[in-house]
Amino acid sequence: MKKQPLIVVAGGGGFIGGHLVADLLRRGHTQIRSVDIKPLGEWYQVFPQIENIVADLKDKDACLAACRGAGEIYNLAADMGGMGFIEQNKALCMLSVLINTHLLMAALESGVERFFFASSACVYNADKQRAADVEPLKEADAYPALAEDGYGWEKLFSERMCRHFYEDFGLITRVARFHNVYGPHGTWEGGREKAPAAVCRKVLEALATGQHEIELWGDGRQTRSFMYIDDCIAGIDKIMHSDIDEPINLGSSELVSINELVDLVEAIGGAKLRRTYNLSAPKGVNGRNSDNTKIRGYLGWEPSTPLAEGMRKTFAWIRGEYQAKYGVQAGAA
Ligand code: NAD
User: Fold this and answer.
1) Among residues 44, 74, 124, 151, which one is catalytic?
2) Which phi-psi region, left, alpha or beta, contains residue 241 (left: φ > 0; alpha: ψ -120 to 50)?
3) What's the CA gap between 160 and 61, in Å, rounded?
4) Res. 333 pLDDT band, cuts 50 70 90
5) Is 151 in the active site?
6) Dihedral of CA 323/329/330/331: which sign?
7) Is 191 near ligand 1, meaning CB less than 6 Å away?
8) What tens digit of pLDDT does each residue of 257-310 get?
9) Whole-angstrom Cα distance, residue 116 to residue 107?
10) I want to staple 289 with a disulfide (CB 3.0 to 4.6 A). Which of 21, 126, 136, 260 is the partner?
11) Is 120 in the pocket of ligand 1 (CB under 6 A)?
């Protein structure tokens, strides 16, 4: 029987990394090394049966140690968050370039077979995202480049680094451009959370305090698509083990406005809140959706979990966390 390769999940203490490790274990992998800069107590999911390492992967020696003996590397490590974080921490976001650069160098030195990089829809040209009724973004829309300042430019640069490590050195690299991922076991408060989790928390706060109000960032008419975590994890595996040697969208194409997202969460939580709009808060581009023509063509597959179904599961998990942390009931069980 062929020996299973050692799989390294960089950023395994994070939202997507934690789910990826859980999925690898479910699928029978036992040789897994999960690496994250956060103290173990802050990881969203910890699996004691695998190798868990706390290390700063901006450091090349840490990357060499992380990649030793590995067959596959999944780079999900980045200093990131929702719009509130990335608009105010551009330098920190760009420093993640050190993680991907040193991981690629270490992967090459360690003879790794495949390398996955988590890119983002933030690489897309801002001029293509000015209208709320946006044309879905095709992969070619990343160029000419006008990426999200800071975070998006780092992703675009790192995508190209992956491409050139493949072309020049033969390291097989796979790149997916994630569009807004949401689900249980992720950030839901503290400033790094993204819209789906933030809306769940705000609805829960309103229910818990009896102050039936919610503040939204922007005018609520900006549009997005949101991909449920299970689709993201399935897509990562499919792309990693495909022959797709160009960056590809991994996102849902179910477009909603932020107002519609709030309608949905209100319905799930059994609330009707008075909305105020903070027009000076960071809100990102006006519209963004994923064109899935390419992924359907390559894989005959695309993310398909309905937003309502994914948000019900996400809301239930955040409600549990909220109640455990604040000791208050918020909404019907
Ligand atoms: P996350 O913040 O939950 O996970 C990232 C993890 O990387 C964190 O646990 C963090 O501690 C770790 N990390 C940061 N700096 C590190 C370092 N120097 N060394 C080691 N670990 C470090 O975020 P996530 O949502 O799980 O995102 C995973 C990847 O997917 C990231 O690259 C992110 O940019 C990308 N992405 C996510 C989304 C999304 O909607 N969640 C969208 C587009 C792209």
Assistant:
1) 151
2) alpha
3) 23
4) very low
5) yes
6) positive
7) no
8) 999 999 999 999 999 999 999 999 887 888 899 999 999 999 999 999 999 999
9) 11
10) 136
11) yes
> How far away, in angstroms, is 14 Cα from ligand 1 center?
6
Residue type, position 328, single letter: V
What pLDDT is recorded for position 72? 98
Paired tokens of 300 = 């005959």
Domains of the chain: 6-181+226-250 (3.40.50.720), 187-225+254-289+306-326 (3.90.25.10)
**Cβ burial, residue 71 (10 Å; 0-12/13-18/19+):** middle
Rounded to the nearest whole angstrom, what is the distance from the C-alpha of residue 75 to the centroid of ligand 1? 9
Q: What is the pLDDT of residues 21-79, one digit of tens each?
A: 999 999 999 999 999 999 999 999 999 999 999 999 999 999 999 999 999 999 999 99
